[in-house]
Amino acid sequence: MNDTALDCLIVGAGPAGLTASIYLARFRRKIKTVDAGSSRASLIPISHNYPGFPDGISGNDLLTRFRAQAVRYGASIDSGLITRIEKIEGGFAASCGDDRFMTRTVLLATGVVDIEPVLPNLKDAIRSGYIRHCPICDGYEVIDKKVAVIGSGKGGLKEALFLKCYTGNLTLLTLGKDMALTDEDREILRNARIRVIEEPIEEVCFEQGKIGAIRMESGQIHNFDTLYSALGAVIRSDLAVQVGAECDPEGHLIVDDHLRTSVPGLYAAGDVVSALNQISVATGHAAIASTTIHNSL
Fold first, then answer.
1. Res 96 pLDDT > 90
2. Would you call 192 helix, strand, or coil by DSSP?
């Protein structure tokens, strides 16, 4: 590998990627961060559970702070899409459009993509807080409110049960899909007094800063304060798979305690790793991975 090779290529500029950029820049390493511009954190309207911000902070404001801190210490953060990573002697080669980077190590902070319900004005609804994805993050904000969980099977059941500690007014919307639950699971739903509606949604109406009504295919109208989507996510682990990294059955990258994948020199942090999908977890991953990378070089 030639002398112009990077010490580390960071793929993704969400909380994990930007934290790694801060650490490795302060370690005085030669790094480049490449970001496709679709961080899941950018859709967060306001978070009240990230430490240090008791009044809450939006996802975009938090990302702006992370980015400014990384740039202050000399990190290079570029827009682009890494489409291929190859293992070569001494490290990796990564392709981004017509550009090709040589790097001694790679840190993947590529995250996940939520599987969204087919609903009108979806992105605006998420940014406005009408449709939520993480009751761990914001379940506190729906205490005693009328909440519907969109999902079926074990995922929908699990999320609805999690929300029981915040509100007793819960409905599970399957969008017309079969619940695919065991008799025992259905008994759990009944005992928890969680209503199930198994017909498709025809229309969602937003009015005066909240969900006005949901009209079902049958024409029946239901009212909720908040919708939670529990349809799962697509794990962005394809780059790692290209070089033979091991994944779990869901597609999360398998890493050790130092965030090393099964491929020497390839690290991963954040939601792409099987763990709680939380910003604080992502930043912790990045701190550990960055320090391990620095010590290994």
1. yes
2. coil
